[in-house]
Amino acid sequence: MPAKKNPKVEIEALRAEIMAHNKRYYELESPTIADAEYDTLLSRLIKLEKDHPELRTADSPTQKVGGAVSSSFAPVKHARPMLSLDNTYNEEEIRAWNDRVLKNMPSGQTPSYILEQKLDGLSCALTYENGRYVRAATRGDGETGEDVTENVRFVGNVPPELRGKNLPQTLEIRGEIVLFFEDFKKINDEEKEAGRPPFVNPRNCAAGSLRQKDAQITKRRHLKFFVHSYGDWRPEHELAGHSSFLDRAKLMGFSVEPYELARSIDQVVEHYNRFRDTGVAKLPYAVDGLVVKVDSFAHQRRLGFTAKSPRWAVAFKYPAQQATSVVNDVEFSVGRTGTITPVAKIEPVFCGGVTISNVTLHNFDEVARLGVRIGDRVLIERAGEVIPKVIKVVEKARGAKDVVPPKKCPVCAGPVLKEEDLVAVFCDNPSCPAQVRRTLEHYASRAAMDIVGLGDSAVDQLVSKKLVKDAADLYDLKREDLLGLELFKDKKADNLLAQIAASKAKTLDRVIYALGIRHIGEKTAETVAERLDLDALLRATEADFQAVPDIGPVVAKSLHAFFSSFAGKNLISRLRDHGLTMAKPERVIAAGAPFSGMTFVFTGALTTFTREEAEEKVKSLGGKASGSVSAKTTYVVYGEDAGSKLKKAKELGVKTMTESEFEKMLP
Ligand code: IVH
Fold first, then answer.
1. Is 117:257 a contact under the CB 8 Å cutoff?
2. Of the candidates 337, 340, 336, which has an alpha carbon nearest to the alpha carbon of residue 360?
């Protein structure tokens, strides 16, 4: 058994460690541990201080919120402290919180809960006087924040003036400033292009964007503000509860995230489970938990506050999406098109609800950019359904080993090439078993030929037994071939053969996508198949491909390289001989579809829909979506910061509309 630690020593060590992390997080904006790891340290300290009240001190990090105030912006003293929320991490803890709430309820009354997302951004307090925006302050240490009035003026959805009558003379609204993933990605692409280190996550990027001396930079960053609470205002006098407050804020012109109401803790848990499993990954911004608030102001008053947080609200955290771990080794995986990807083998770590031991490093430029070496401790992130990735090195190891690109393909020992202008290093042998496997897996995947039963392990067996070398070989498979394989009993073999046969009817777009041609995704395959039939594809020049709307030179080159090559023509002809119809796709749209005959172009930053969603809506209603404006365009729908396409539409006299006007057109 390990020696029992002296609590005083442990408490002091924890305090020093937490304070150092606070400084890195709040002041230097460069954390070296994941949030969940920080929470574990803090929870341990809270527990020790609870068990040993004689060791509590007023300057302990458990008694303070956030970091110190940075000196570069003027300090603003908050009219009421900006508190934080207590965290719960599992059903037991949220139920224990609920028990404490119920104990404080008047007899016979049960509270209603309002459920909001816990946005992972920056807390900010906005003050309005007589309905006009006058000031914005960051949270700072909870008592005093920084004056960011000029910068917040340029946060797109912050109203300069409030709507409605009977506005209180002074009104302080609090909320979270966030950056959508889409905008975060664009900013980081620009940072990389300019040779600057990219931001670690959207929250850090939002913080950096807000604390700019030049507010014009803030403007370009597309930050957004969502209301979640209030400071110097007493809506309790006029409204019944928090949900009415949010509704009121919305009427005043603020953006408010959708919320839900729950009547019992069971409903809270149900909602949490559903959102954690299927909701979080779909959101366009980062969230790290569900916030559960007692709705009624009367009930809130009975519950009151502790020194740090309200008793009437709590955060129910989603499983951590970030963690730190050590890189034990780096292996190389060979993809469908031969690209060799370095993959870090890390000490297994629990993150985002799963144990992670492999993390992609994307390519060798990324390895160099991160400066990662074998032995280093790294911060990893698992965002939604995406493969976990390394965000940064948090601790360099002594004697760490460099990651060296392989000289030979790790699977077939064939030559390795690096294409000029491309970051990828790849295996140049199209018969490399790794490439053959990945190509077949892709061919059979749901969005491609959708051959159920031809998953990774079936492909693996077919390739290693040399029964299949390419997609056309699949159609030569016999029942006996399959029965000779492990795990293939009668019924399973018959099912797979039936699935393979059924795939012969797939339309041309699916086939083009399934072939796994470089740079050709589902959408491009669809666009190409709508314009060119199979014979036209086989004859097309690079210029013919470029003439297809939305097809640029790189894609045109890749399509041409495939369809004009001997290997490509040969594969297509064998697929044809096997009876694949490869017919032009036809969208089945109900007669009289509202958008039939119309072409829409979306441009600028949309807020209600992602571009893909908006385009899908148009297609589902019988219309077409295009990436470029021409005289044939029916409508150009523009969001914030629309540029050349909107200009072109005006020049050509094409009708334009805002995103909300478009929304109104929808049935
Ligand atoms: S309520 C008195 N609601 O999380 C508590 N906070 O530790 C007032 N946050 O810094 C905050 N989403 O900025 C509330 N839906 C939400 C939130 C939220 C994010 C932030 C908040 C605070 C931290 C709480």
1. yes
2. 340
One DSSP character per residue, 483-541 reads HTSTT--HHHHHHHHHHHHHGGG--HHHHHHHTT-TT--HHHHHHHHHH--HHHHHH--
Asked whether the beta carbons of 319 and 417 are under 8 A apart, the reply is: no
User: Domain coordinates of the chain in residue numbers?
Assistant: 7-54, 75-317, 323-402, 433-505, 508-577, 599-665
Ligand 1, pocket-test mutation among 83, 84, 88, 117, most atoms within 8 A of CB: 84
The structure tokens listed for 179 are 């950056």
Cα 91 to Cα 401: distance, rounded to the nearest angstrom: 43
- Angstrom distance (rounded) from CA 125 to CA 535: 63
Round to the nearest angstrom and report the end-to-end CA distance of the chain: 68
C-alpha 230 to ligand 1 mean position (Å): 11
278 Cα: distance to centroid of ligand 1 (angstroms): 22
Annotated catalytic residues are 118
DSSP state of 319: P
Tens of pLDDT along 173-223? 999 999 998 899 888 888 877 777 778 788 888 988 888 878 888 888 899
- For ligand 1, atom 21, the nearest C-alpha belongs to 123
Q: Which residues line ligand 1 (CB under 6 A)?
A: 83-85, 116, 118-119, 123, 139, 176, 228-229, 291, 310, 313
Instruction: Return the CATH architecture of domain 75-317.
Output: 2-Layer Sandwich (3.30)
What does pTM read for this prediction?
Answer: 0.56
State residue 631 phi and psi, 5-degree precision.
Answer: -65, -20
Residues whose CB falls within 8 Å of the CB of residue 586, separated by 6 or more in sequence, listed in order = 507
Q: Note the Cα 299 to chain centre separation in Å.
A: 36
Atom nearest to 82 CA in ligand 1: 2
Question: How many angstroms does the Cα of residue 338 sit away from the middle of ligand 1?
Answer: 46
Any idea which fold 7-54 has? Helix Hairpins (1.10.287)
CB 112 within 8 A of CB 300: no
To which residue do tokens 């492999």 refer? 358
Taking the C-alpha atoms of residue 471 and residue 517, their distance in angstroms, rounded to an integer, is 13
CA of 118 to the centre of ligand 1 (A): 6
Instruction: Give the residue, by CA position, lying nearest to ligand 1 atom 3.
Output: 228
What CATH number labels 599-665?
3.40.50.10190
Rounded distance between C-alpha atoms, residue 502 and residue 178, angstroms: 47
To test the pocket of ligand 1, the residue of 228, 233, 290 to mutate (highest count of ligand atoms within 8 Å of its CB) is: 228
Ligand 1 center–CA 374 separation, angstroms: 38
Euclidean distance between CA atoms 313 and 289, whole angstroms? 13
Kindly give the number of the ligand 1 atom that is closest to the alpha carbon of 122.
13
* CATH annotation of 433-505: 1.10.150.20
- Asked, colleague to colleague, whether 7-54 and 433-505 share their fold, the answer is no
Residue 450 has pLDDT above 90, yes or no: yes
CATH fit for domain 508-577, picks 1.20.1250.20, 1.10.150.20, 3.40.190.10, 1.20.1180.10: 1.10.150.20
Residue 529: pLDDT over 90: yes
More confident residue, 198 or 143: 143
The residue whose CA has the least distance to atom 2 of ligand 1 is: 83
